[in-house]
Design a protein that fits this description.
Elements (H helix, E strand, L loop, with lengths): L14 E4 L30 E10 L4 E11 L2 E5 L2 H15 L4 E5 L2 H8 L10 E5 L2 E7 L3 E5 H5 L3 H8 L8 H4 L13 H25 L10 H12 L4 H7 L3 H10 L5 E3 L8 E9 L2 H8 L1 E3 L4 E2 L5 H9 L2 E14 L14 E5 L10 E2 L2 E2 L1 E10 H10 E17 L2 H17 L6 H18 L8 E4 L2 E4 L5 H8 L8 H21 L3 E5 L2 E5 L5 H14 L2 E3 L5 E3 L3 E14 L2 E5 L5 E5 L4 H10 L11 E2 L5 E6 L5 E5 L2 E5 L2 E6 L2 E2 L7 H16 L1 H6 L3
Parallel strand pairs: 1-4, 2-5, 5-8
Antiparallel strand pairs: 2-3, 3-4, 6-7, 7-8, 9-21, 10-22, 10-25, 11-18, 12-18, 13-17, 13-18, 14-17, 15-16, 19-20, 21-22, 23-24, 25-26, 26-27, 28-33, 29-32, 30-31
Helix pairs in contact: 4-6, 7-14, 10-13, 10-16, 13-14, 14-16
Length: about 700
């Protein structure tokens, strides 16, 4: 076999070939032996492979074509320029594989599958989707099993290769120049080929590290990042399985739980929006979701529908220790204190809502939160009920109610949380143990993610080049089928976030009027706030449950306490998931949904800094992209720039701008104007000292 040379930077690469000079006869696949307990009939080849393509956008047609593909078999890279070359390559590999299957990792398979579907007619049983255009696995020619390494890690390719820090790090896209138009007959430089080849080699190296760190093989490796912890918890819960099956609620109760599920509380204090503030302190709850699962109580028994729907009976049940899920009507809803900084009720969780006549003035809604409403319908837990009662005046009618009893989560779930927390803490800062630290940190966080996965997720079929949701069964039929495999309860996830919102509300209450911004487990506030009593109570809980661990420096860490994350020199927010700040060194940082933190901060710095972070600011170099799917059923041959090209099914990824702003109706701007006029009365002290 001949080998090409690409300069000194390629000394560590074993072999790289075009399809023209790759000697297939010298390549032999061996079957991968199974470990004890690894069952199945499919035999995988004992090697790690990766596949990737590079594409060019044909802007005048808003289409995209592949101009080079690269395929790594361990450290051997084969590349080609056309789809015909790729199909020929696969067929020759197929001859060498016999009955063996080859697992091929693709970093963001959902992108590549759009192009592969233009050259191969996938049957519905060959593609496994989680939702439309979200593909985890696809099989071609029976032998080739493509898997998504992005879904396995939840990391970008650059972040993944950097984490595992091997030879083949993701190369700089700046040198590669994505804007350059390339075609299958465009000569590629050494730098361009190196960029392409490192993408697949980096995936191969990373997969090997993942297999080693998790003691997995290709037979046992899950398809998603959450799969690692699902396997661990499922094994730990084996003795509880019959109890879990017994406690699964009826379908109607599940529907209420599904409607009541809500994530973290993220919001900006409207009285400080668009104000540049000095010396804003940020505190975070240590491992908020794991702390709730270890230290708080959850519905753990049999759900029962209740027919006495009086408020007095509800209050009595809650006082006696019942967990409650209910659908309610709330009338004449309004904040007890009109200056509450973070209203609790989100419009997004209201089934129905009716506002007073003055709604057009924008005084009833605070960036998606209810300030006042004539009527609303929603599903809530007893925790939500308690928080709503503390913040709003209203009249309530209960339409449906189910109750359960509170107790701690099953011991295996608490133990898994504690094991990962202790291992993470004990490995923190130890040289050479960084990967194991990150592994345990992610496993700890994944337990929550596993607990909120919808048990009634419909199958997505990929047929006739379309993603089709299977609706042959009703929701109830699907629920009753899938509940038979349950090893945990969906309500555990619902209550995890409810407890977390209550913990965050405790932090908001401690900060009082000085609260500036909150996000799930974080409070940002002005001046000083005393969290000592709250933290002492949490430490007492942790000592009782064992939810603490010492780091390598002998410092004891507790779950669920508020810890200082830093003090920002200057800070400004324009609403939820829209803020920017300067650290003590004066470096600017941003958090804006959909905008690259690094590139967005660099652009804002160039164009005026915090003072420019206002509605109407357009991020042109934001890193924000959008996808245009072209589901062409037949290839189109055309001439572009003198190149004869074939356009098949494809997806165009194009950069787009992001404009900082409020809601299109202007409601939030109206409210902020009123809030600004009220600021002297409500926050006079902070206005004089802090606002610029």
């Amino acid at each position: 076999m001949s080998r090409s040379g690409l300069g000194s930077g390629w000394k560590q690469v074993e072999q790289f070939f075009s399809t023209d000079n790759f000697d297939y006869s010298s390549f032999n696949f061996k079957p991968l032996a199974r470990k004890p307990g690894e069952n199945g009939t499919v035999v995988y080849a004992d090697c790690v492979c990766s596949f990737d393509i590079e594409t060019t956008r044909i802007e005048e047609r808003e289409q995209s074509i592949m101009y080079v593909w690269q395929f790594a078999i361990e450290e051997t890279v084969i590349y080609g320029r056309t789809w015909d070359e790729f199909k020929t390559f696969l067929h020759k590999l197929k001859e060498k594989l016999g009955t063996m299957h080859l697992i091929i990792f693709v970093h963001n398979l959902s992108f590549e599958i759009q192009f592969l579907a233009g050259i191969y007619n996938f049957n519905d049983y060959e593609v496994f989707c989680t939702e439309s255009r979200k593909v985890l696995k696809a099989v071609m020619y029976k032998n080739f099993e493509f898997r998504c390494s992005y879904k396995l890690t939840n990391l970008s390719l650059a972040a993944m290769t950097k984490r595992y820090n091997k030879k083949y790090l993701k190369q700089s896209g700046e040198e590669f120049d994505y804007s350059k138009r390339r075609f299958p007959d465009t000569p590629l430089s050494e730098t361009e080929l190196k960029y392409c080849f490192y993408d697949v080699l980096g995936v191969v190296e990373s997969i090997h590290e993942i297999l080693r760190l998790n003691d997995e093989s290709l037979y046992s490796l899950p398809l998603t990042a959450t799969g690692f912890v699902r396997k661990a918890v499922k094994t730990a819960m084996i003795d509880y399985r019959q109890q879990m099956l017994k406690d699964i609620p009826p379908y109607r109760c599940y529907q209420l739980l599904r409607s009541a599920f809500r994530g973290g509380n993220t919001h900006a204090n409207r009285f400080y929006v668009d104000c540049i503030l000095d010396n804003v302190t940020s505190v975070d709850i240590s491992s908020s979701y794991p702390s709730q699962q270890v230290n708080k109580k959850f519905p753990v028994g049999v759900w029962k529908e209740r027919h006495d729907l009086s408020i007095s009976q509800l209050d009595k049940r809650i006082e006696l220790g019942a967990a409650v899920i209910m659908r309610v009507y709330l009338y004449d809803v309004e904040l007890r204190n009109p200056y509450v900084p973070i209203p609790y009720i989100p419009i997004a969780k209201c089934i129905r809502v009716k506002y007073p006549d003055d709604y057009r003035r924008g005084l009833c809604v605070d960036n998606g939160r209810i300030i006042q409403a004539d009527f609303l319908e929603m599903c809530i837990t007893d925790i939500d009920y308690r928080l709503i009662v503390s913040m709003y005046n209203f009249r309530m009618e209960i339409q449906e109610l189910w109750s359960n009893w509170y107790d701690f989560l099953p011991l295996p779930i608490r133990s898994c949380n504690l094991d990962y927390f202790r291992q993470k803490t004990m490995l923190k800062g130890i040289a050479g143990q960084e990967l194991y630290y990150l592994k345990n940190k992610e496993l700890l966080n994944s337990i929550y993610g596993m607990s909120v996965q919808d048990p009634v997720k419909r199958t997505i079929s990929f047929a006739d080049l379309k993603y089709i949701e299977d609706d042959t069964k009703s929701g109830e039929e699907l629920y009753n089928t899938k509940r038979k495999n349950a090893f945990t309860q969906y309500c555990f996830g619902v209550w995890t976030t409810a407890h977390a919102r209550e913990s965050l509300q405790a932090g908001i209450d401690i900060c009082g009027d000085s609260i500036v911004y909150v996000d799930t487990d974080s409070c940002k506030y002005l001046g000083s706030a005393d969290f000592s009593k709250y933290n002492n109570d949490r430490i007492a809980e942790c000592k009782a449950s064992g939810a603490f661990a010492d780091d390598p420096h002998g410092v004891t860490h507790y779950l669920g306490v508020y810890e200082t994350d830093g003090v920002y020199k200057r800070f400004v927010t324009q609403g939820a998931k829209k803020y920017a700040y300067e650290d003590q060194a004066g470096k600017l940082h941003i958090t804006v949904s959909g905008v690259s933190k690094k590139r967005g901060a660099e652009e804002l710095t160039r164009r005026g800094g915090l003072e420019a972070f206002k509605p109407g600011f357009i991020f042109h170099d934001s890193g924000k992209t959008e996808s245009v799917y072209n589901d062409n059923k037949k290839p189109v041959i055309t001439n572009v720039d003198g190149h004869l090209i074939t356009i098949t099914r494809n997806v165009v990824i194009r950069e787009t701008t992001y404009t900082l702003g409020y809601d299109s109706q202007g409601f939030y701007a109206d409210l902020l104007n009123v809030s600004s006029n009220s600021l002297n009365k409500v926050h006079k002290f902070w206005r004089n000292l802090q606002l610029k």
